[in-house]
């Protein structure tokens, strides 16, 4: 019974048992081949018939269906068959015990094959699950519309959260709680002497995929910058590092560096320390002279709502301090930029005319110049800086990754390294010259390795898929009018064959690349870029009627076979729609959730976040 391979996925092997007609008259008492026959003790001829059972035992497997006392006694002492004595020219009867042995061997062979198939399939499924857990937007075990498994009531409007292996960690007043990601049940709770903040507030906006951190760093909750008279309290604070199971790994009262990081700018004016990566505290502040117009009252432009503010803020000082040892891992000073009109919102504090705690007209009448404002938060393994006159990305060692000469440029985690993405600033379409930035230069994305070194500069803006199955290595680039695919070495492969401009890549798998156009959704062949299927925009009044309009889709996830699209509907909230990647048909539609902020995939799981709760779907 040989094994016949059937067509299957590249990473899945399926075999079919085929009856070849052999084995029905298998004689296990026939002599073994010479290579498996044991020589006689006296060096004589190899033992065969009489000793074949022992030889087969030495060869590997012995199937004994005769019982412990040997073969059953014959019912024909004379050796005569039904046609008379067996002799020359008479066919020998097949012993029944031989057929029994053959059947047993066949059964064992089938069992071994089936067992092997089950083992191979189990290994394949585990490998597929691991790949999806690591893939952006990857989901494991999606067999239909995701069902609500659990909900945890937690206020995320003012508190950040942290994802560690197997747990969602949130602050609850003066306690920190870890919730099991599979069940939503509370796994552990750690008390503190005062309210604490763990993680970074920037994770409120990290939708799509949230990478688990190995540890949780907690510091006292409070304003980022205190009154200058209280700066000593700001620059010294207790910090605690927790493991994924809630155990305390390190505790220390840390203090911001007192010596000038750069002698040319003097001592730093530190803001409150914040949780940093890998068991550290992140210190961010200003270094250099305070601008003269800091603290002045500025008026709003009644036409544009902008403020007339000029000047150059002080440079930004950054330090990363290890909690366990107290050592400062690295320090750096990042130059700030002059304030330009339209980018002054980070340089003011808005003042409202109020009666009690209620705004009279809900609008700010004037603002106070605050050129000292600066924030630092985690970005992958590095640090993102934002504030007045500053927007920068630092790597794990403090090296700057973004291009300081490109307004709005930022570096975000990408494929184990970083993507230097100029689309954070203003991009313009210039017809034949494609996309260009405010300086008039063409927009160019760049892929960096983990050390910040350039791997590849794209001939346009890199369009990253929102979700993959971990098997696509294509890179997608747009110049504003066409979407082009490149391989991992930067070799151009194809241009997307769509009737409209393909502006976004929602999902990229080994079998389908799902893109949006002005008309709807298109499934492309990843080998050629040709359209495998096209779905036009739904004509219904809401997403529940069918496919979402391409402009309403703002998140995507996949298990490799189904695209899970998240769309926004003003009335229904965030809806989920399952689209078959093979042909574009709608598999299911899940009604909208009005108070949903968004979704994220965590280690192959799908989580939904709202202002007052976190829910696990599956």
What does this structure look like?
The protein has 618 residues and is mostly beta strands. Among the domains are: 3-74 and 93-134, no CATH class; 255-401, no CATH class; 407-451, no CATH class. 8% of the residues lie in helices and 39% in strands. The chain is built from 3 helices and 47 strands. It has a 5-stranded mixed sheet, with no helix packed on it. β37 and β38 (513-516) form a beta hairpin. It starts with a strand and ends with a strand.
Number of distinct helices: 3
Distance between the termini: 41 Å
- Proportion of residues in β-strands: 35-45%
Evaluate the radius of gyration: 35 Å
Query: Mean of the pLDDT scores?
Result: 77
Low-confidence stretches: 1-8, 12-18, 20-30, 32-91, 202-206, 225-229, 354-362, 539-544
Query: Helix/strand-derived class?
Result: mainly beta
Oligomer: single chain
Q: What is the helix content? A: under 10%
Largest sheet: 5 strands, mixed
Strand order of the largest sheet: 5-47-46-45-11
Count every beta strand, where a strand is a DSSP E run of 2 or more residues. Answer: 47
Outline type: globular
């Amino acid at each position: 019974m040989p094994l016949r391979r059937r067509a299957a996925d590249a990473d899945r092997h399926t075999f079919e048992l085929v009856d070849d007609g052999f084995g029905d008259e298998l004689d296990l008492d026939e002599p073994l081949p010479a290579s498996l026959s044991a020589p006689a003790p006296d060096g004589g001829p190899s033992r065969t018939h009489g000793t074949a059972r022992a030889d087969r035992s030495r060869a590997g497997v012995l199937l004994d269906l005769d019982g412990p006392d040997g073969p059953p006694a014959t019912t024909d002492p004379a050796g005569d068959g039904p046609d008379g004595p067996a002799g020359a020219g008479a066919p020998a009867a097949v012993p029944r015990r031989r057929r029994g042995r053959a059947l047993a061997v066949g059964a064992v062979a089938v069992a071994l094959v089936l067992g092997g198939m089950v083992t191979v399939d189990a290994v394949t499924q585990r490998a597929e699950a691991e790949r999806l857990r690591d893939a952006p937007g990857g989901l494991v075990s999606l067999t239909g519309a995701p069902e609500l498994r659990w909900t945890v009531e937690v206020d995320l409007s003012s508190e950040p959260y942290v994802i560690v292996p197997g747990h969602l960690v949130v602050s609850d007043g003066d306690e920190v709680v870890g919730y099991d990601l599979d069940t939503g049940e509370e796994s552990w709770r750690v008390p503190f002497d005062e309210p604490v903040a763990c993680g970074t507030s920037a994770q409120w906006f990290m939708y799509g995929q949230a990478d688990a951190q190995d540890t949780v760093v907690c510091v006292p909750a409070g304003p980022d910058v205190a009154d200058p008279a209280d700066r000593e309290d700001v620059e010294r604070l207790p910090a605690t590092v927790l493991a994924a199971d809630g155990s305390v790994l390190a505790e220390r009262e840390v203090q911001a560096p007192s010596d000038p990081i750069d002698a040319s700018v003097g001592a730093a004016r530190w803001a409150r320390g914040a949780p940093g990566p890998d068991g550290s505290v992140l210190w961010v502040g200003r270094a250099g002279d305070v601008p003269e117009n800091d603290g002045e009252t500025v008026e709003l432009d009644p036409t544009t709502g902008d403020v007339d503010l000029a000047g150059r803020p002080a440079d930004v000082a950054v330090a990363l301090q290890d909690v366990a040892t107290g050592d400062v891992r690295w320090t750096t000073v990042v130059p700030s930029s002059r304030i330009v009109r339209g980018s002054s919102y980070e340089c003011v504090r808005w003042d409202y005319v109020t009666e009690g705690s209620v705004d009279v007209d809900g609008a700010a009448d004037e603002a106070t110049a605050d050129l000292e404002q600066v924030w630092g938060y985690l970005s992958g393994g590095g640090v993102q800086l934002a504030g007045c006159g500053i927007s920068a990305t630092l790597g794990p060692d403090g090296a700057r990754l973004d291009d300081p000469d490109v307004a709005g440029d930022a570096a975000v985690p990408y494929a184990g390294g970083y993507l230097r993405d100029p689309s954070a600033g203003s991009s313009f379409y210039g017809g034949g010259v494609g996309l260009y930035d405010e300086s008039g230069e063409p927009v160019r994305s760049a892929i960096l390795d983990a050390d910040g070194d350039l791997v590849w500069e794209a001939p346009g803006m890199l369009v990253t898929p929102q979700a993959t199955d971990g098997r696509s290595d294509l890179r997608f680039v747009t110049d504003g009018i066409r979407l082009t695919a490149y391989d991992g070495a930067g070799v151009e492969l194809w241009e997307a064959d769509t009737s409209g401009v393909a502006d976004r890549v929602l999902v990229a798998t080994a079998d389908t690349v799902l893109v949006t156009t002005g008309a709807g959704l298109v499934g492309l062949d990843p080998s050629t870029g040709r359209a495998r299927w096209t779905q036009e925009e739904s004509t219904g009044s809401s997403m529940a009627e069918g496919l979402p309009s391409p402009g309403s889709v703002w998140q995507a996830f996949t298990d490799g076979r189904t695209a899970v699209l998240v769309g926004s509907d003003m009335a229904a909230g965030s809806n989920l729609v399952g689209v078959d990647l093979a042909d574009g048909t709608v598999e299911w539609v899940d009604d909208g959730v009005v108070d949903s902020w968004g979704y994220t995939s965590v280690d192959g799981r799908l989580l939904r976040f709202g202002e007052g709760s976190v829910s696990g779907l599956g």
